[in-house]
Amino acid sequence: MRTTHLFFLLYFASCLFTTCPLSAQERYRVGVCDWMILKRQKLGEFDLAKQLGCDGVELDMGPLGNRPAFDNQLRNTNTAHLFRHTADSLGITVGAVAMSGFYAQDLTQKDTYLDLANDCFDTMDLMGAQVAFLPLGGCGNDWTSNKAKRAEVVKRLHQMGEAAKARGKRIGIDTPLDAKGNLRLLREVKSDGIAIFYKLQTIIEQGGDIAADLRRLGARNICAIHASNTDSLWLRDDPAIDMPAIKQTLDQMGWSGWLFVERSRDVSMVRNVKMNYGSNVRYLKEIFNTYPAPHVALKAEGRDSAYVSSILARSRKATDKLGITWTPKGQDVLHIIANRYFALNDIYAQRDEMRKSNKQLADAQCDSRLYRSHFGFDADLALYLKPGEVETVKDVMTYDVVHVTYDAFCDMIPTLTTEEKQQIMIWLIEARELALDAESSNKKHETFNKYKGRINNYLSARGYNLQHEREEWEKRVKARGGTL
C-alpha cells in the first residue's frame, strides 16, 4: 500500500515539475547575426556580443559565392576549439549557424547542397548549436509560382531536412511567404528537419499582421526568429513593429527560442554597431523581460523626476560619445555619471544651507567633500572603462573645453614648441579636473578661464606677442572663410 502511495506522490510531483512555466530567461534568448555586426567568423564576435548584452550569436558559415563550399574556417579543428572555448568562457551561446551565402546563391543551382548542409551540421556540432538558418533569397522571385523550380526546391529541402533530422538538428528556412504559404510549403517538403526561421520584415513588407501570422503558422513550425525590420529605425522607434503584442502572442502560443537581431539599424549611423545593436538587443530584452538589472544603482530616490530625467539626458551625452549607451556596461556608466551629478548637487546644497550660519566652515567642508569624492568617481569609471574612455567622459562633462582650447592655441601660434604644447595640455587637464567638481557650467568655464590666463602669462614670458599672434590668427581664419 505504501509503495502505491509513493508511486502516486512521485507521479503528481513529476506532473507539477513538467507543467511549471518557463521563466522569461529560459523561454526567450536574444542574439545578433555575426555577419551584420561586421564579425563574420571572427573570434571577436563573442566579446562584442557580450558587450551588447546578448545571450548568444547567429554564427555564419562564411562566404559562398561561386565556390563549391563555404569559406568556413571552422573546419580547422584548432580554430573551432578556440572559438568554442572563447564563447564558453564569455557565457555566449551559438544559438544558430547560418548559411547566409544562400541569400545570393540559388539553392537549385548548387549541386553540392548536401555537402554544404553537412558542413553546416559539422560546425553546429562543434559550436553546440541545434538550429541552422537557410535563406531562399538566391532562388529568385519566381520559385514559389514556377512549378518546376518549386519542385526542385522542395526536393532539395526534403533531402536537407532529412539529413538534419538524422543528426538531431533542424534547418530554419527564410521564405517570402506568409503563414498560409509557409504551411503549404512545409506540407510539400514533408520533413520534420525543416521549419520556418521566421522574419518580421517579411510580413511587414507584405502589409500583414505579424501576431496573426505567427498564430496561424503555429509554435511547432517556428524554430527561431529574426526579430527586426529593414534598416531605417531602431526597433524601439519602429511604428511597424508592435513588439509587446508579438511577445504576448508568443507567450500565448507557448513558443520558446532565439530572437536574433539582423537589421533595424538607424540609417543616420548605419555602421555604429554598438549603438544600433546595443539599442535593439536591449529593447528586445526589456520587452521579453530578460534584461539584466544594472550593477550600479541609480541614486534617484527622493529626487524630482524632471530633474532626474534632465541629469540622465546630460549623462547620456558621454555614453553616446562612447557608443555604449544601450549596452549593459553603458547603463552602469550612465548611472555612475548621473550619480556624480547627484552627489555634486547634494554637496553644494549642504554648503548653501550651512553658509546661513557659518560660511567659512561651510566652504571648508564643501572642499573636503569634493576632494574625497573626486577620486572615487575616477575609480568607479575605471571599473568599466579604459583610461582613454574615462578621459572622454571627463571631456564631455566639461564641454570638451580642453581640446577646443588646446587646438585654438596651436592654431593661433603655429610655432609653438613641443615643450610648450605639452605644458598647455598639462594645465588644461588640471583645469578640467577642477571644473569637473564645479557647481555650474558658468563655474566650469570660470575655472578654464583662470588657466587660460596662466597659459597667456606663460607664453608672454616665453617671448610671444599674443596681441600680434591673435591679429594674425584672425586674418588666417577669415581667409579660410571662418570667424573667431
Report on the structure:
With 484 residues, this protein is of the alpha/beta class. Helices cover 57% and strands 9% of the residues. The protein is built from 19 helices and eight strands. The protein has an eight-stranded parallel β-barrel, surrounded by five helices. The chain starts with a helix and ends in a 5-residue tail after the last helix. Residues 6-19 have low confidence and may be disordered.
* Count of discrete alpha- or pi-helical segments spanning 4 or more residues: 19
One letter per element, helices H and strands E, the order comes to: HHEHEHEHEHEHEHHEHEHHHHHHHHH
Shape: elongated
Q: Separation of termini?
A: 98 Å
Which key features would you list for this structure?
8 strands, 57% helix, alpha/beta, 484 residues
Give a brief description.
The protein is an alpha/beta fold and 484 residues long. The protein is built from 19 helices and eight strands. Helix content is 57%, strand content 9%.
Please describe the topology of this protein.
Layout: H1 2-19, H2 24-27, E1 28-33, H3 44-52, E2 56-60, H4 77-90, E3 93-98, H5 113-127, E4 131-135, H6 147-166, E5 170-174, H7 179-189, E6 194-199, H8 200-205, H9 210-217, E7 222-226, H10 243-253, E8 257-261, H11 273-287, H12 305-322, H13 328-355, H14 359-382, H15 387-397, H16 401-412, H17 418-435, H18 441-461, H19 466-479
Parallel strand pairs: 1-2, 1-8, 2-3, 3-4, 4-5, 5-6, 6-7, 7-8
